[in-house]
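Sequence in, structure out.
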Amino acid sequence: MRTLKRLGFQVGIVSGGFTQITDMLAADTVEAAGVPLSETVAIGDGANDLDMLAAAGLGVAFNAKPVVRAQADTAVNVPFLDTILFLLGIPGEEIQELTEQPGAPK
């Protein structure tokens, strides 16, 4: 999250567990940011995340169940979320540089 923020990405966190709350929050987060859904990334691991993964521009199954991996755009099966930075085209050198910047926002 810190790396994405330092690169100027807008980040919203939504849980698929409480749809009556998160459906509204997800729509409001995207609308407030002025970002088309085609430019969003969703990450999920369970069947309850399938709609979210399908709606996003890039749906990532993260250590997900087989049904989710089969329907997502791509899958990451390692225990590190920073692997997703690679999918976004952010090279390791840039991540390292951002991590080491003094005074950079957290």
